[in-house]
Amino acid sequence: MPRKKITVVGAGNVGASVAAYASAQELGDIVLLDIREDYAKGIGLDLFEATPVHGVDTRVLGSQDYEETRDSDLIIITAGIARRPGMSRDDLLATNVRIVGEVAEKSFQASPNAIMIVVSNPLDAMVYTAWKKSGIKPRRLMGMAGVLDTARFRSFLAEEIGVSVEDIQALVLGGHGDSMVPLTRHCSVGGIPVTEFITPGRLEQIVQRTREGGAEIVKLLKTGSAYYAPAASAVEMAKSILRDKKRLLPVAAYLDGEFGEKGIFVGVPAILGAEGVEKVIDVELTRSEKELLSESIEQVRGSMNEVDREM
Length: 311
Hints:
By secondary structure, the protein is an alpha/beta fold. 44% of the residues lie in helices and 20% in strands. The strands form four sheets. A six-stranded parallel β-sheet has the order 3-2-1-4-5-6, sandwiched between helices. A three-stranded antiparallel β-sheet has the order 7-10-11, covered by helices on one side. The protein has a three-stranded antiparallel β-sheet with strand order 12-13-14.
């Protein structure tokens, strides 16, 4: 069986980390695309030279030519400028609409049968941008957000309780940012409700830290934003798609009536397989959860309107 082909657009910290994780897990051959051709070639060669150490048979090729990406099975878009201290995700919108729009259009033209994952920020707006510019079917497009937000939530909870991160189950809905909605009611530790371990007040503090997780790292780094955890999250999604694992993961998916919403990409639980987003799981919410999700969705719609004005 021929190996899968993965295009990673953007050879910066996130894109290079995506390529590194995907190669080490032998998910497929990788084309690392960047406007800095020699830089992409250098990163690609470095990663290829690591394959004997990992014991994997994958090729990593750096290029700036979309022709090299032709007939990819999966496209992961990380291109765009990153957040810096004092910047919100929305501050990035005007610049990244142009970058992500062009990238999505050209990538999809070269690989019209591919599934596309967007990682660039502001996430929900960039998924919408990629959809509008590429013409890809909405269920074959998704954004990496909920996997990262959930990972942050799980890591903070595991640290607080003193248990393995593997035993923490959690779910985060809504937009990728300050309006995300961690569903603490569905959070458990080895099947035991998290409220058995943490007081409501402390749990709310951890929820707020999760909402500010990206900004916390930006503040510490001072010259950039997070990349290891976002890259690992994107590769987790890629693995479920390329290996048709049918993982239930929170992603920015297109809603067509689920949660009472239509025509919007927002963070929801979904089954990811060979066809992309194969099913959105419409979770029953409490009144307060519905209100929080509605507020988050309104913010996402505002970003969508900004995208439309920029186009």
